[in-house]
Amino acid sequence: MTYRLLLLTAVVAFALGGCSKGEQQTNAPQPGATATLGNTTGLPLPDNATIVDARDIHQTINPSQEGGTAVTSLAKGSYVGHEVVASTPATVDDLDKWLATVAAPQGYNKANTPANVAATAHKYGISYVAFVSGNSKGATIVIMDPHTVAMKLGPVLSVIEKYNAMPEPLRQSMDAQVKARTGQSISEMLDKSAPLGAAVAAMSDFRTSNNRAIILVTAEKQ
Questions:
Q1: Diameter of the chain by CA atoms?
Q2: Which of 75, 114, 195, 220 has the greatest number of CB atoms lying within 10 Å of its CB?
Q3: What end-to-end distance do the CA atoms of the chain give, in Å?
Q4: C-alpha–C-alpha distance, residues 222 and 218, integer Å
Q5: Alpha-carbon span 84 to 195, nearest angstrom
Q6: Residue 51, Cβ neighbours under 10 Å: how many?
Q7: Contact present, 58 and 194 (Cβ < 8 Å)
Q8: In the prediction, which pLDDT does 196 show?
Q9: φ/ψ of residue 113, rounded to 5
């Protein structure tokens, strides 16, 4: 995840050039949301977590572009599934302990995450565990400390804000340039119905909150 965020920063910064900074616009629910939402993923949440968002997701996965992550074992193609974002006052240490106790869902195996990848993610306030079923199903539990993420990846979020503030025609032009270079447009990287975009949105939504964020994702190849 960190690698792709840094890649996103690089390509957006290159395309932006001398554009002035704008403010991000988002309709994403805030951590204090009170609407009744259900956990559609089937993955567990700690007892003190409150669901603040839930959505269907779609994502195109190319394992060759995901080196060092759990999805390298999944088949290339389009995936659909569910995502839930929750807020919790639990500490990062307590959440890491809880995450270590989560068993693989029935029919899934825990995916191997290289120690260096996990260590790098943790440095940026992110911990996660991934599960796979064959090469066509995946599930992930991500824990984020938004304060740490914002502090460590502030330039990333600032660049994304610049992009979101630009007029639609200019964003479309940039998307075409970036997709030609990377195989994926900025809009696709930031699509809130896809896991990466949802994670970026959660980082922004929780930036002024003292709570931690938990993101649950389940997806199956079509």
A1: 51
A2: 195
A3: 23
A4: 13
A5: 10
A6: 20
A7: yes
A8: 58
A9: -110, 120
Backbone angles phi, psi at 85, to 5 degrees: -115, 130
- Convert the pLDDT of each residue in 105-127 to its tens digit: 999 999 887 777 778 778 878 88
Q: Which residue shows structure tokens 């979101």?
A: 164
Structure token digits, residue 168: 């639609």
Find the helix or strand (DSSP H, E) in which 196 lies.
helix 195-205
Going from the C-alpha of 132 to that of each of 38, 72, 109, 164, the distances in angstroms are: 23, 10, 5, 33
pTM: 0.73
Return d(Cα 132, Cα 48) in angstroms, integer. 27
Q: Note the pLDDT tens digit of each residue in 156-166.
A: 677 777 888 88
Q: Where are the domains of the chain?
A: 30-148+191-221
**Alpha carbon distances (Å) from 206 to 81, 103, 191:** 23, 27, 18
Rounded Cα distance between 218 and 130, Å, is 10
Q: Please give the helix or strand (H or E) that residue 123 lies within, else none.
A: helix 115-123
What are the DSSP E strand ranges found in 38-194?
50-61, 77-88, 109-110, 126-133, 137-144
Show Cβ contacts of residue 116 under 8 Å, excluding neighbours closer than 6 positions. Answer: 68
| SS3 labels along 80-97 | EEEEEEEEECCCHHHHHH
202 sits in which H/E element: helix 195-205
